[in-house]
Structures are given as structure tokens and as C-alpha cells.
Amino acid sequence: MVSGSADPASAPATPRGIPHRGGPMNPSADRIRDRFGSSFVRAEVTWGETTVFVRPESVYDIVRYLHDDASEQYDYLSDVTAVEYRDLELPLQVVWHLRSLPYRRFLRLKAEIPKGAPLRVPSVMPIYSGADWLERECFDMFGIQFDGHPDLRRILMWEQYAEGYPLRKDFPLRGRFSRSEQLRQALAAQPESRYSMTELTIADAFEDLPLEMRQRLAGGEKTGE
Amino acid sequence: MGLTARPDHQLVTVSPQSTEGWVATRLDFLVNWGRANSLWPMPFGTACCAIEFMATAASKYDLARFGMERMSFSPRQADVLICAGRVPFKLAPVLRRIWQQMLQPKWCISMGACASSGGMFDNYAVVQGIDTIIPVDVYVPGCPPRPEGLIYGIMMLQEKVKRERMSDERLRDEMEPDPTSKLYIPPSMIDELSEPFGNSVHQTRSGL
Fold first, then answer.
1. Could you tell me if A187 lies within 8 Å of chain B, comparing CB atoms?
2. What is the value of pTM for the model shown?
């Protein structure tokens, strides 16, 4: 899986005997080092998969290069997520999983955010439209701001959710509020009000809405906050 | 002292205060028999319990034997809300509204551990028992319950339906939620019902 080929004659085979650390590195890692030297932090191979650590602010340029360049062609974004470690200096990592279908390559990009720094990374949604909900989920669960995302709001929890970001390490498992308060806030939410204007128009549900709500949404109100 | 007549056991005594005459009880029997054997379920399946519910409705266990073959996907034509699976807080107002849209007479079966108590999901996102949102008639334990378990719960509900009496004035009383908090039961009771139990007490995360 590490070194792919554009030649369709070479059939893919299940790799066997992969070492935990080390092994052949994805050639894209070296090209990122050559091209974006100052943004490149380090690269490592784990279970045959290459991880490239880069600086948060340069993620957009690197992903743009990986997507557009003829020798890379990472045309599929599998995942955007984040991980929080019990690390005192660099607790939070934002992760992008990229796949190049023509070259049969997989690359994991990671941006480490130091403690105390603002949780901001560039959005890759101008490159991959599919990053829309992935980045919204990441924002919902970790509170990471994706600069350039046109509609960054909660996706799993409801809009008025006020307890914080559930997947952060400092978030208690049972939430911050008491159960009755959680239930009271959940029941106070309007089930329809969490859809944006675009979603309602696409779903053809817009015409069926009450007149008052249609006027409210047509007036530019995004959600029922 | 001999002035009152001895009670004659041959006579049928009729007390005008009692509203449950012979006709009324027999009518109760007829109506309840009809209702109990044609309960239309509204399946509210959110998780793996819904798979067992589908197995119950399929040919081997055949829910049609209980007059339940007609799944009512509109709450307005349903008699029984079968909540199968965990209910996250985001779904709580939806479940509440579906229950309020159902017409009387209506009943509710809470199927499985998650719907009844939150089950293993003692976390920030899951309602700790749907009885904090809507009234529940029958709880079916299991994770998920086998079809036999659900059928046993349904038969228990049928027993409950058959024992209803029209003379019970509070039979069809709707529980009105508190206008400000929108809760049926007091907040302290909800907190008590959702107390952590078993091992879940020790699952809170430590700091760094």
C-alpha cells in the first residue's frame, strides 16, 4: 500500500508482515519536505502507513498541492478528525486522512496544536466538498475552528448545546449539568429548528413548514437559536 | 334488635351509586377484548432492539398473531409506542412530540435496557430511561430482548388493557408537562432515577 503505481496492470495485493515501526515511506512525504520545508515537522511510518506532521497554518497549501499535483493526485479525503493526548506540550492533533486512488497511496497528515494556542486550522472544504460534515463534527466534538468553512456549526449535538465539547479530555463522561437540567434543555429544543435554510430547501420540506417559520428562515436566520 | 329484616341472599341487590353495572362490565369486556387484540404498534426503533423487533414481526415469531401486523408509521393511527433502542437527548423532544401526537387510548412499551434505563450508555448524550420523557406501561428487559421477551411484554400489556374499566375516571388522563421546565416528573426525581449504578460510578475520567 505504501508505494503505489499508476500502472493498472500491477494488481493490488494484501500486504503481509508489516512492521510496527519503520518500513518503506510514502514518497509524498519526501516531496512535502522538499517543497514545504519550513512547514514540515517530521514523518513516520506506523504499521506501513505514513504520517506526516506539519504546521497547522500550512495545511491548506499542502493539501492543495497533494490534491492538484499530477504526481500526487490525492483525490479522496477519507476523514478529518482530531485526537487529544495526555501530552502536556502538544495535547491536540488534527488529523486528515488522504487517499490517492490513481497511485493507490494513503497519507495521514497531522497538525499538532500546542497548549494554549488557539484551536484554529484552515478548512480544506474549498478542495474537498466532502470535508463539510467532517469538519463540522470535529468542531462539534473538539471545538476546533476551521477557518474558511462556510457553515461551521454543531452537527451531532443540537445548536443550543451549552456543555462544551464532549470529546475533550476535560469533559466529564456524564456531562457537566445534572440529568434533569440536561433533559430540560433537550426538551426545550425545537426539533425542526436545527436545519439550515439550504438543508430545508434541498429536502423539499420547506414548503410544508408553517408560514411563520418560512418567513423566519427566508429572512436569513440560519437556525432557531 | 329483630326489627331489621334478615338479608335475603336470594335477592340481587343493586346499588345506584355503583356505576359498574352488569351491562357496563360486559361492555368493558367486549371493548377491552377488541382493543387488546388489535393493538397497532408505532415502532420507534433507534438501535439494535429494532432489529429484534423486526424479527418479532417477521414470519417466525409473527406479531400478527397478536393483531399487531399493522405497523402504524403515523403516530395518529397508532395504539402502542414501542420504543426500541437508546434515545439520545437530541431525540427527546421528537419522542415527546410523537407521544403527544398519538390519540387515546395509547400505551407505551419500553423495549430493552437502553430505553428503560439508559443501559450501558451512562454518558452525556443518552436519556437515562424514556420514562423521564413519556409515561411507560411495560418495560421489557434485555440487551436486546429476544422476540419471546418482547412478546411476553406485549402479552403483559394485553392483560393490562383487558383490566381497564370505563368507570375509572382517571383512565385516560394525559400527563401534562410542567409549563416552564417541560418535565413530567420533578427534577429531583429525574436525578435520582439517573443516578449512576454499578460500575459506571468509577468511569469518570481523571485529570491529566
1. yes
2. 0.77
Q: Which of A160, A165, A180 to mutate to test the interface with B (most CBs of B within 10 A)?
A: A180
Q: For B36-167+174-193, CATH number?
A: 3.40.50.12280
Residue of A nearest to B89 (CA): A186
How is residue A21 annotated by DSSP?
A: B
Q: What is the pLDDT along chain A (225 residues), one digit of tens a residue?
A: 455 555 656 677 888 888 898 888 889 999 999 998 889 999 999 998 999 999 999 999 999 999 999 888 999 999 999 999 887 788 899 999 999 999 889 999 999 998 888 899 999 999 999 998 999 999 999 999 999 888 888 888 887 788 889 998 888 888 888 888 888 888 887 776 656 666 666 556 666 666 776 776 676 655 544
Contact (Cβ atoms closer than 8 angstroms) between residue B93 and residue A189: yes
| A187 chain-B contacts, CB cut-off 8 A | 92-93, 96, 133, 177, 182-183
- Taking residue A64's Cβ as centre, other Cβ atoms within 10 Å add up to 14
Residue written as cell 517543497?
Answer: A35
The pLDDT tens digits of the residues spanning B13-46 come to 656 556 566 777 778 888 889 999 989 999 998 9
Segments in chain A forming alpha helices (H)? 27-35, 59-68, 131-142, 179-188, 197-202, 211-218
CATH topology of domain A27-156: Beta Polymerase; domain 2 (3.30.460)
The DSSP secondary-structure symbol of B117 reads H
How distant is the Cα of A106 from the closest Cα of chain B, in angstroms? Answer: 33
Q: Is it true that the peptide bond before B43 is cis, omega within 30 degrees of 0?
A: no
Query: Which residue in this structure is represented by grid cell 520545508?
Result: A37
CB-based contact A88:A115 (threshold 8 Å): yes
Q: Which residues of A touch B89 (CB under 8 A)?
A: 158, 182-183, 185-186
Q: Would you say the ipTM is above 0.90?
A: no
CB-CB contact of A105 with A2 (8 Å): yes
Contact B187 A184 (CB under 8 A): yes
Instruction: Give SS3 for B138.
Output: strand
Q: Where are the domains of chain A?
A: 27-156, 190-225
- Identify the CA nearest to B119 among candidates B41, B192, B205, B49: B49
Cβ within 8 Å, pair B204-A173: yes
Q: What angle do CA B66, B72, B165 make, to 5 degrees?
A: 55
> Cβ neighbours of residue A206 under 8 Å, at least 6 residues apart?
A200, A214, A217
